Each structure stands twice: as structure tokens, then as C-alpha cells.
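Example for tutorial group B:
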């Protein structure tokens, strides 16, 4: 592509250079045509003046002398011959009749004594009848000739200089633009080759706001999608293999014990197997949920404009009966109402997981949901008065199947993992602060204007915060 663009520029430059040569030829030709036409006009004026000096009685010597004098001033060497072939007047005779100072001036202007070459004749007429013949040739005009040559020389110099400046500048511009235009394409090609070798960490970055910039942005999103999809596949296989091992081992042990007669209470053995099967079914459901959450990164955002306060009030209202059944309060801090663009389905999933988590780990007291907006982002907080999270566990709670010190609690340890995956898919982040005395605070921060993936800001921090960040 680079060579094609460079060749295209070279063709344009060559055409411009050829047009420069044509332009130079046309200027010189037009200048020469102008000087020739000027000489023809001057000759016509002289012939008219000479013919006007002829009368029925013959040549008017005084008028003829003035006409020849005028012709000499225009640079013409004139000889007039009458109809009988007798020379009527010459420029030598005219020169002899003028003053010494004028004679000197004309000699300075014209090289009269060096004028050579054949005369050109022109028939003179009077009242339609032959009156004689005019012979003429041009004096050698050193000064005028030098001016003509200087004009032509300077014109050639000017055109040559413009040719060199334009040509060199155009070649430099062709080299620069061909490299400038093709560099992003070459970078994309190299990055695509790395993707083909399964190097999904490659990024080209967005360097402009034109079509190539959009292509780079789409490429980076594709690379990030492929990386997440590959990571999702590896994690899914690892999680399934790890989590299925324990229930399958228990079921196998119960079956072998019953088959060998070691376990005589078959009802109890079958109950154990059924319990493990229920656990497997629940585990598969949890894996499906986390897979859907991770796959949300690849789906097109179904965003809509929401009045956040009204939206949160509805979600809190749906969850309040579950808290009341456990003897807990679920409060909603209705602050300033404002509109946001968000994927409502994902946001409901996030909030229900966080509130379910608060319900699960709070035995007395209350949970509170609130929201606020600042600097193009909005945050939703879910606070509880539960048992809190230990310092050693706080960095692990978003890991899959991690339940920490609360393994006795019902659950697979996937709820917070799903929350984190969904929030990141919406280009936000989750913060958490917890201690055993005051419970736990989860804060979700999302852009007010909705998720608009960009390789330039996807990994950028949203706001500094004293809370622990995942």
C-alpha cells in the first residue's frame, strides 16, 4: 500500500513537472510572438508614413526624411527606391542631416555599423499605383537584445527554481504522507498477525479521530474481546473441573460403599447422592450465571434513560419483603433525582446480588441503599450492619467460588464475581469497605452517559477513593 501511494504521488508530481515545462515553453513562445508582432506593427507604421510622403509630384524629401528618421528610432535600417529603381533615400543620408549629439545617441543605442544581413523588400503604393520599393532590415540593438535575453534567462531561472522547490517539496511530501498514511495500516497488520498467533494482549491504540482511528478502536475492542473470551474459556474449564470433583467423588464413594455392602443403609446413601446431585445442579446454575455475566462484555449495550431515584426505589421495594421476613430493615436514601443512561437489566442484577449479599450476612440491624452523582459519574451504595469482611479476605471476595470464613452460609461464592463482571462490562468499578463493627459498604461507580467502550479510557480510573478498589 505504501508503494502504491508513493507511486500515485510520483505520478502527480511528474504531471506537475511536465506542466511546468509546458508552461515555460508557452511563456517563451508568447514573449517571442509578442516581440514579433510589435515589430510588425512598427514596420506597418513606418510603411504607412513612407507612403504618406509620396505625392503626385514625387517624393516629399522632408516628410520622407522624417519617416526614415522615425524608422531608425524604431531600429529599422531603411532604403527607399522609386518606381524607376533609383534610390530615393537611405539611413546614411538621414544620419548626415541630423545633429551631432543625436547622431551620437543613436549610435550608442544601435550598432548601425555592425548591421548585416539581407534586406526585405516591400512594395510601396500611392492611390493604388506603384510608387517604389522599401527595403528594410533591423539594426543590431545591443541593449534591447540584452534585455530580451535577460528576460528569457530570468524566466528560465524562475521556472527552474520553482520546479526544484515544488519538485523536491512534492517528493518529500510524498515520502512523508505515504509513510504517515500507511503507518497505522502497517501497525494494524502487524497487530493482526500477532492476534493470529494467539497473542491477545496486543493493542494499537487510537491516534486520530478519522476512519483509521475508528478502525484502531474497533481492533482494540476485538483484541480485548478475544482475550476475555479466551480467559473465560480457561476459567470455565478450570472451575467446572475443580467444583465437580468433590460431589462426584462423594457420589462415587456412596455408590461403591453400597455396592460393597459397607453401607447397608441404602436410603441414607441415596439421600447423600441426591444431596450431591442437587449441589451439582445448583453449581451448574451458578456457572451459567457467571458465564452470562462475563459474556455481557461482548453483548451490545441495551441502554435506556432512567430516573435513577425512581428506579432504585422500585428495586428496593421488590427486595424489602425478604429483609422483613428476616426481621431486618431495608432503607432507601432518596437523594437528588437525576437521569442516567444505563443497561437496566444488568443494573438490576448487580443491585439484587449486592442486597442479597447484605441479607445473607446481616443477622440484625439494617441495610441501606443510596445514590449520588458527581463529575459525569454516579455511584450506588449498599451498606449493611452485618458481620463484615476480614482483612485477609477482603482482597479475595471477588474470586470465583470464594466464601472465606462464611462457608456455612448458603451460596456458591459467585454473587460478587457476577457483580464485578457486570460492572466492568458497563465500564465501571466496584469499591468495598468493611470492618467487623460497622458492617460492609459496597459502592458501584458507573458513567452517567452510559458505557461507550474506548481503548483510550477503558482502563482509566474513574475517581480516587479511600475505599478498597477491585
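The residue assignment follows.
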Amino acid at each position: 500500500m505504501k508503494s502504491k501511494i508513493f507511486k500515485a504521488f510520483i505520478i502527480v508530481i511528474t504531471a506537475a513537472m511536465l506542466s511546468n515545462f509546458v508552461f515555460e515553453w508557452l511563456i517563451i513562445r508568447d514573449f517571442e510572438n509578442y516581440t514579433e508582432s510589435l515589430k510588425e506593427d512598427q514596420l506597418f507604421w513606418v510603411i504607412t508614413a513612407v507612403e504618406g510622403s509620396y505625392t503626385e509630384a514625387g517624393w516629399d524629401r522632408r516628410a520622407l526624411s522624417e519617416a526614415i528618421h522615425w524608422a531608425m528610432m524604431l531600429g529599422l535600417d531603411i532604403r527607399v527606391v522609386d518606381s524607376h529603381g533609383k534610390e530615393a533615400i537611405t539611413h546614411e543620408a538621414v544620419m548626415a542631416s541630423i545633429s551631432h549629439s543625436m547622431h551620437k545617441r543613436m549610435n550608442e543605442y544601435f550598432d548601425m555599423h555592425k548591421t548585416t544581413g539581407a534586406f526585405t523588400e516591400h512594395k510601396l503604393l500611392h492611390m493604388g499605383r506603384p510608387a517604389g520599393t522599401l527595403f528594410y532590415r533591423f539594426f543590431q540593438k545591443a541593449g534591447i537584445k540584452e534585455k530580451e535575453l535577460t528576460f528569457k534567462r530570468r524566466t528560465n531561472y524562475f521556472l527552474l527554481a520553482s520546479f526544484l522547490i515544488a519538485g523536491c517539496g512534492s517528493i518529500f511530501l510524498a515520502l512523508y504522507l505515504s509513510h504517515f498514511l500507511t503507518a497505522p495500516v502497517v501497525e494494524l497488520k502487524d497487530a493482526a498477525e500477532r492476534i493470529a498467533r494467539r497473542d491477545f494482549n496486543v493493542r494499537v491504540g487510537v491516534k486520530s479521530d478519522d476512519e483509521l482511528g475508528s478502525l484502531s478502536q474497533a481492533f482494540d475492542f476485538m483484541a480485548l474481546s478475544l482475550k476475555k473470551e479466551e480467559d473465560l474459556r480457561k476459567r470455565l474449564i478450570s472451575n467446572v473441573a475443580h467444583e465437580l470433583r468433590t460431589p462426584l467423588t462423594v457420589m462415587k464413594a456412596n455408590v461403591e460403599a453400597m455396592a460393597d455392602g459397607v453401607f447397608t443403609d441404602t436410603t441414607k446413601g441415596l439421600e447423600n447422592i441426591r444431596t450431591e446431585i442437587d449441589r451439582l445442579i445448583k453449581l451448574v446454575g451458578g456457572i451459567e450465571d457467571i458465564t452470562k455475566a462475563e459474556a455481557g462484555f461482548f453483548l451490545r449495550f441495551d441502554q435506556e434513560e432512567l430516573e435513577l431515584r425512581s428506579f432504585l426505589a422500585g428495586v428496593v421495594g421488590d427486595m424489602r419483603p425478604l429483609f422483613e421476613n428476616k426481621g431486618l430493615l431495608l432503607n432507601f436514601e432518596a437523594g437528588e433525582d437525576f437521569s442516567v443512561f444505563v443497561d437496566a437489566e444488568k443494573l438490576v442484577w448487580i443491585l439484587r446480588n449486592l442486597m442479597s449479599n447484605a441479607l445473607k450476612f446481616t443477622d440484625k440491624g439494617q441495610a441501606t441503599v443510596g445514590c449520588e452523582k458527581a463529575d459525569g459519574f454516579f455511584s450506588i451504595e449498599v451498606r449493611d450492619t452485618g458481620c463484615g469482611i476480614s482483612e485477609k479476605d477482603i482482597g479475595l471476595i471477588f474470586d470465583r467460588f470464594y466464601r472465606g470464613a462464611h462457608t456455612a452460609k448458603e451460596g456458591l461464592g459467585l454473587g460478587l464475581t457476577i457483580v464485578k463482571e457486570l460492572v466492568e462490562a458497563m465500564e465501571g468499578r466496584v469499591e468495598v469497605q468493611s470492618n467487623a463493627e460497622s458492617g460492609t459498604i459496597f459502592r458501584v461507580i458507573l458513567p452517567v452517559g452510559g458505557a461507550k467502550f474506548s481503548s483510550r479510557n477503558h482502563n482509566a480510573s474513574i475517581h480516587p477513593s479511600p475505599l478498597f478498589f477491585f
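Residues 2-144 form one domain. Compare this with the pattern of hydrophobic and polar residues in the output above.
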